[in-house]
Amino acid sequence: MTEMFRGRAAIVTGASSGIGRAIARRLADDSVDLCLVAAPHDAADLDGVAEDIRSAGVRVVSIASDVGEPETAERAVAEALDAFGRLDHLASNAGIAYFEEILDSPLEHFDHTMRVNVRGMYLMTQSVGRAMAERGGGTMVCTASTASFAGEEYQATYNASKGAVGQLARSLAIDLAPYGIRVNAVAPGWVRTPPTAEILADETQWSKHRSRIPLDRPAEPSEIANVAAFLLSDASSYMTGSLVVADGGLTAGYRFSDWEAVPTASEPRAARRRP
User: Fold this and answer.
1) Does the pLDDT value for residue 125 go beyond 50?
2) Which position among 16, 62, 145, 242 bears the catalytic label?
3) How many CA atoms lie within 13 A of 178 on its CB side?
4) What is the pLDDT of residues 46-87, one digit of tens each?
5) 45, 158, 170, 189: most buried, per Cβ within 10 A?
6) Using CA atoms, how far apart are residues 52 and 15, in angstroms rounded to an integer?
7) Mean pLDDT of the residues in the chain
8) Mean pLDDT confidence for 248-262
């Protein structure tokens, strides 16, 4: 998709690690100039991502700032326009999660999750939308989740926030269509990122999750980044308001055959299936 992206500029939030870093690198591969945003406590990691991309010959500016503050979005837009003279794309990806019993979850965790995952996305898409409207269009992709459609145990605050993200993306698509701005969302399932590392490494916990995934593995961040890049590109020109699921089949349905979620090295896959 290099030719589609050539000469364009984008803002990527949550760019210091995981899916955000993968989206930044994917767009950099297509020569997109980048304004990268991450939380202040991720400044060192953000600098590393920026330097890595810059060394590949792509123009980069980076901002370590709280996306829940209106000034962060305004600054990102201003710096992108100042550095690149244009702003074509937004990957609004910043997000956090708490995994905990709902009866023990403090209100502060709910407020923090909503501040980053919903308020931050609202502020960023609004500021970027204003800039895009002035120049006649652009594209946005929001990082939603399979938790946008169904609840999962121990993550009530995250589920609520991602449900809001899905509705925000749809609403933005409707409101911004007259300005030539398309808005879509990617909804990943399990992805190999820092927040999921502990669960993926725990055979007992992960066996319960992978038994629900037909592809029998988590996604790599680059696989989600490929979907995001498609939604930002002209290749998806008739898509807006879509929530594109990339979950290895997690939400496709249910299996009736019984197979062991944790295979043994000596047992071939066919032997693990139970009719």
Assistant:
1) yes
2) 145
3) 3
4) 999 999 999 999 999 999 999 999 999 999 999 999 999 999
5) 158
6) 12
7) 92
8) 76
Please identify which of the residues 122, 158, 236, 242 carries the catalytic annotation. Answer: 158
For 126-151, what is each residue's pLDDT tens digit? 999 999 999 999 999 999 999 999 88
* Contact present, 5 and 236 (Cβ < 8 Å): no
Question: Is 158 labeled as catalytic in the residue annotation?
Answer: yes
- Find, among 21, 43, 35, the residue nearest to 86 by Cα: 35
Torsions phi, psi for 216 (to 5 deg): 60, 35
The residue behind tokens 């890049």 is 229
As a whole number of angstroms, the distance between CA 63 and CA 231 comes to: 24
Going by the DSSP 8-state scheme, the letter that residue 38 receives in this structure is: E
Tokens (6 digits) for 187? 């909804």
| Annotation says 145 is catalytic | yes
Nearest to 66 by CA among 120, 11, 127, 142: 120
All domains in the chain, ordered by first residue = 2-249 (3.40.50.720)
Task: Catalytic residue, from 162, 233, 236, 242: name it.
Answer: 162
Q: Give CA separation, 7 vs 18, 34, 85, 102, 141, in Å.
A: 25, 11, 10, 47, 19
